[in-house]
Each structure stands twice: as C-alpha cells, then as structure tokens.
Amino acid sequence: MFNPIRFIFRAILLLVALLALTVQAQAASQYPALSIIGKLGINAVNISGMVKTDQFLALATDEGTQIQILPKSANGYVADSSGVIDLNQTQQAIKEFDLEAMAWQKPYLYVLGSHSKKRKKLKPNSSVKKNMERITPVIDEPYRRVLFRVELSKQLKPLHIDKISLLNEIQNNPILSPFLAIPSKENGIDIEGLAVRQHHGKTQLFVGFRGPVLRGNLTPILKLTLSTKRFEVKKSKLLLVNLGGFGIRDMQATERGFLLLSGPVNTVPNRFSLYDWDGKTQLSPMPQKQVLPNQKNDGNPEAIATENLPGWGPGIWVGKDGAENGDIRFYPFTTK
Question: Cβ-count burial of 34 within 10 angstroms (0-12 exposed, 13-18 middle, 19+ buried)?
C-alpha cells in the first residue's frame, strides 16, 4: 500500500544527500586542479608520493613497482608510457614495493617503501570463522623495506638506480625496533614521509613515520646522513615531534625548515593538517599551520608539493590516495 508519509520522508533524504554531494563538489572545485595530459601508466587511483618541479612531475603508487615521470608542457604535465620507470631491477616477480614517499635533489629522485608488515582486511560477506582465520597471520613483505635513488638525465631518463634498506637503522634503534613486528595501521612501522636537504655539503634524508605514534603523542622522524662516496647511510638520528597523536603522511624541505602533512595512523579521525617544523625534536604539542578541507570520500592526502602559485600566492599541491590521478589540487596557505 502506498504510504505518502514514507514517500515524502525518503524524498527528503534523497534531496539532502544530493545537496551534500553538490556542496562537496563545489567546495573541491574552488581549488585549482593540476592538469595531467594523457593516461597514467601506473595505478592512477593509488597515488602515494609526488615531486613537482618546474620541469616535471614525478608520481609514485603504493601498488606495483613503478613510478612515472611527466614532463611539463605549456598546458600541463604529459603522461606518456615512456615516462614509466620500473624500479624492479631484478629477474624476480615482485608484486609491489608499497612506495609511499618521494623527494628530489638534482639529479637524484629518492623513492621510499613503507618498510611495513600488514594484516589482511576483513571480508564483509565472509563468516566470523573465516574472517578470524584471515586476519590471524601477520604478513611480512621484505620488498617493502627499500629506499631507491634514481639518477635522472637532463632528458628525464633513468641513468642509474641504486637501492638500500633502512631495516638496520630501525632495528638498531631501541625505540623503533619493538614496532617492527606489528602491522601497519595497528601502530606498527609504517613510513610515508620523505624530505631531502643539503647541509654543510652533506645530503640528509628525513624519514617520517605514519606509525608508530609513541606515548605522549610523539611521532618519529629518522634523520639520515648519506655517505658522499656511495649510496649508504653514514649516520642516523631519531627525532620526535608532537602532532597531537597523528602520524606523518608526507613532508617536504622548505627554505625555513620542513612542512609536515599529518594524518591518522589508521583511518580515523579523518583529519589532515599541516605543520611547520624546524628539524629539531619537539616534545610539546606543535601549533597547526593549517587544517585541510574535510576529505569525505574523495581520497586521503598522501603527497604534497609547495609552490607560490600566480594569482593564489604561497600554498601546497596535495595528491590523494583513492582519487583518480590523485586529484591533485592547490590549497593556498591560510593567513593568521
């Protein structure tokens, strides 16, 4: 029997949902989108790392073993199959490196794996027994424990690819080592941030952890000093920052220090913020520079690149994991 009250109620719910989607789309469209011309040759909905320069855009995905270099043109960044670089230089079939971060210091592009272990996700349609069996084992994927250094030519082609692991640096640190046995998303080791700078003639890498977050809301950052003779870590130092219980999703060196992108260790709370950091341990809560707009269901911010964009001023490009082509958009810094 037709129930007019129920019909009207459902119609109102539908209108509210449509209005929310419209408002969300309008809000997203307020921010400039980065133009990518062509089709990406890597997984286009799992963008996890980004470098943006005046000459090219480099993108990494946490699925597979490839990155892609997109040369800049007058109308945007050109995605062509010739720009795809497979980091798997072995004869072994490797499913993925779980690439999560990138950094650039000419002529080297640094690409970092998460170094994490994992637990399988629940299957909604499976029984409790099968799901319990599914999530019991902790899966170790050694190929995730990798840091690449890709030397690029002036034509943006790979001249040489070096590879090391940060496992020793993590194992030898008494604070970090206990977390090696714990899966990512459960406060285990999970690396997602990388920045590079030149300091007194030496190359330093700063490695930001999504997890673990320690007691006191302290998030680890490893400062690595590289050897000048070969691609290896000469010295490491653990730094800690207080981001209010959040982990690091990406980071970038700036003129005055670093810019940190924070986000949840797991998936909640769904809040992503920016912090200015001076490169030193900060045990007290750090002031937020800016909170990014609510992401809803359009992907999670996992890659950043700063720029002073004409007509907009200083701000940040944000790439999202879970959105087509990363839905890379520019967010101007808010003034206080």
Answer: buried
Low-confidence ranges of the chain (pLDDT < 50): 16-26
- Strands 329-332 and 313-321, how do they pair? antiparallel
How far is 279 from 282, CA to CA, in rounded Å?
9
pLDDT number for residue 268: 78
Closest CA to 144 of 159, 163, 171, 160: 163
d(CA 314, CA 310): 9
Exposure of 147 by Cβ count < 10 A (0-12 exposed, 13-18 middle, 19+ buried)?
buried
Count the alpha carbons within 13 Å of 264 in the hemisphere toward its beta carbon.
10
Parse the chain into domains and list their residue ranges: 1-30, 112-332
Q: Is the dihedral of CA 206, 209, 214, 219 positive or negative?
A: positive
The single-letter DSSP state of residue 26 is H
In angstroms, rounded to a whole number, what is the distance separating the alpha carbons of residues 53 and 60? 15
- What confidence score (pLDDT) does residue 108 get? 98
Rounded CA-CA distance 301/249 in Å is: 7
Helices (H), strands (E): how many in the chain?
3, 24
DSSP, residue by residue, 241-260: EE-TT-EEEEEEEETTEEEE
Contact 244, 269 (CB under 8 A): no
CA 38 to chain centre: 23
Which pTM does this prediction carry?
A: 0.90
The three-class DSSP label of residue 295 is coil
Instruction: Give the model confidence (pLDDT) of 54-111 as tens digits.
Output: 999 999 999 999 999 999 999 999 999 999 999 999 989 999 999 999 999 999 999 9
Query: Side-chain half-sphere of 42: how many Cα atoms within 13 Å?
Result: 31
Q: What is the model's pLDDT at position 4? A: 63
DSSP three-state, residue 9 = helix
| pLDDT number for residue 296 | 62
Q: Which DSSP state fits 143?
A: G
CA dihedral 303, 47, 300, 316 (to 10 degrees): 30
